[in-house]
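sorry for the late reply, my laptop died twice this morning and i had to redo everyting from scratch. anyway the thing you sent over, i finally got around to it. pasting the sequence first so we're on the same page, its 357 residues, then the predicted structure underneath. double check i copied it right bc i was rushing
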Amino acid sequence: MIAEEIERRIESGVYTPASGFPTQEKLCLEFSTSRSNIHKVLKRLEGKGLIIRRKGKRTQLKGDGVKTMLFLYFPSKDVPPNEVRRNIRLKGISGFTNYQNLPVPLLLYSGIRRYAADNKFHLLIKVGEAFRQNIESILPQIDGIILSGDNIEEFYQTQLRNSNIPVCVIGAHHLMETDLISADYYEGGSRAASTILDRGLTRPALLTLCHGEIFTSLRMIQYAFVSYAEQHQLETAFLHTLQFDDLKNEGASVQALKEKIRKYNPDSIVYCGAVSFPFIRKIPSVRILPSIVVDYFDVINPEWNTEIIGFDAKKIGFMAAARLAERLRKPEQEPVRMLIPCVINKQNGIKARNSKN
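ok and here's the structure:
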C-alpha cells in the first residue's frame, strides 16, 4: 500500500524533480513504519524505473535525460470528474466491465504505462479539468503529451498548439496537426456487416449505444456498417439508438426496440457498444437472435454468447506512447495517422449460438 501511494504521487505530480523526493526519515514518520520497510518500498520503485538511488546521496525521481510523458484524458461531460480521478488511478486493470468504471481510458493507460516503464520514461497522468487549473505549473515538467477523451480539439487549439510540446492524440477523428493513433472503427463496422453476410443472415438490426450523445467512434462503426450493407445488397432491418439510462429499467428506448423487433422481424443483431448487450439479451425476442458485438475487447465479457469484433485498447495506448517517443527523438517528422486493425473472435460463432438457442 505504501509503494502504491508513493507511485500515485509520482504519477500525479505531487513529487517532481523540482520539489525533490522525501527522505527515508520523512517517509518513515508519515507512514508510521520502519526504515527497513521503506527500504523495501524504495527498492520496488527503483525496479520500476521510477526513482534512482545512489549510496550516500538523496533518492532522486529520475536521472538526466529521462523524458516525461503526460497522459491527459478529458472525460465525457456525463461522467463525474471525481469518478474519473478515482478510477484512472486504479492499478488492477483487468476485470473492469462496468461502464462507469471507464475501462477504455484505464486500458489505454495500461498500454502507455507499459511502454514508459520498458523504455525508461517518466509518466504523469492528469484528468482534463485538473490540468486546466494547473497548466502553468505542470507544462514546464512535460516533454510530450498523449491526449485523449471528449472535446479535445478546442483545448488543443487554445492551450497546447503554441506550447511547442509534441502531442499524440488517441481518438476517432480530429483535424489537429498532430500524430493520431486510433482503432480502425470503419473497419470494425465493415467487418460486422461482412460477417453477417458470411453467416447467411439477411436482415440484421443495428443497435448503437448513446450516453448523453453518440460517441464519434460508434457513429463511425454505424456509418461503415450501413455503407457496406448498401454496397452488398444487405437489407438492414432497422437502426436503433439505445439510451444508456434506459438499459437497467427498460426505459423508452428499450421499449421502442421491442416494438421494432415485433414490427420488422430481424434475423440478427449487431451491438455498437458492448454495455447494452447483457441488458438487451434479457428480452426473449432478442435472446434467440444471433449477435455480434463491436467494441474494445476488455469491456466485453468473454462468457457472453456472442461473436466479437474487438479493438485492443492496451495496444493502442502502447503504440501512442511509442509514437510520442519517436516524435521526441525526431521532432521534424510530419504527423502520422495510424489505424490499429480490429480482430474477430470466432470462438463462439453466431451459427453455433443460433443452434444452441
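The chain has a mean pLDDT of 83.
thats about all i looked at so far, will dig more tmrw
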